Amino acid sequence: TKIAQICRFALTGLEGYWYYDAVQYVYENGIIECTGTGEFSPSTTLNRAMFWTMLARLDGAEIEGGANWY
Prior knowledge:
The protein is an all-alpha fold. 46% of the residues lie in helices and 0% in strands. The protein contains 3 helices and no strands. It has helices at 2-12, 20-28, 48-59. The relative contact order is 0.14.
């Protein structure tokens, strides 16, 4: 998708940072996604919903749908 392409482009600017490999892994495995603007935002505060979403994705849980799943 276009947003995924934009996010991949944003990730390409991170080469050389100590956390690049970890970020690339969680992004490529669907554990994290870009923010709503299609950017990778490493300085954004991680809230409870984001944390639970990452844990659920890591576990393989189905999280798509209308109502809050958590």
